[in-house]
């Protein structure tokens, strides 16, 4: 017969630790930063360091996670397209040579990553 707290009225969930209930309160958008992918995390770091006002704005409106996920998806699509195009143009001289194919794939990945970092990750979105 106790009265509901403000947090309970707002639907905030609680977690119990050592007999004490703590409300689960997080800053919107930043709590999911670990699952935005490699390029999403790199973009978040870039925006935070180069454009702190934009970063704070995205955090404030809860859009940081969504934007970082979008950047990650675009980056991986571009990465795959560049790699495939480069490998189409540069065929191995010996089709069954593992080492030669490995080297070609590494070259394609390095070229593609450089383009992705320059054109997608290190950009103001």
Automatic annotation (TrEMBL):
Domain of life, per lineage: Bacteria
InterPro entries reported in the protein's UniProt record: TnpV
Protein name: TnpV protein
């Amino acid at each position: 017969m106790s009265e509901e707290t403000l947090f309970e009225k707002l639907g905030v969930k609680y977690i119990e630790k050592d007999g004490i209930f703590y409300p689960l309160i997080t800053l919107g958008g930043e709590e999911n930063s670990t699952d935005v992918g490699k390029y999403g995390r790199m973009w978040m770091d870039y925006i935070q360091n180069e454009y702190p006002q934009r970063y704070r704005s995205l955090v404030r409106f809860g859009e940081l996670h969504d934007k970082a996920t979008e950047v990650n998806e675009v980056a991986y699509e571009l990465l795959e397209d560049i790699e495939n195009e480069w490998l189409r143009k540069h065929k191995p001289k010996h089709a069954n040579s593992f080492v030669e194919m490995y080297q070609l794939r590494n070259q394609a990945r390095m070229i593609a990553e450089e383009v992705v970092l320059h054109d997608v990750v290190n950009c103001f979105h």
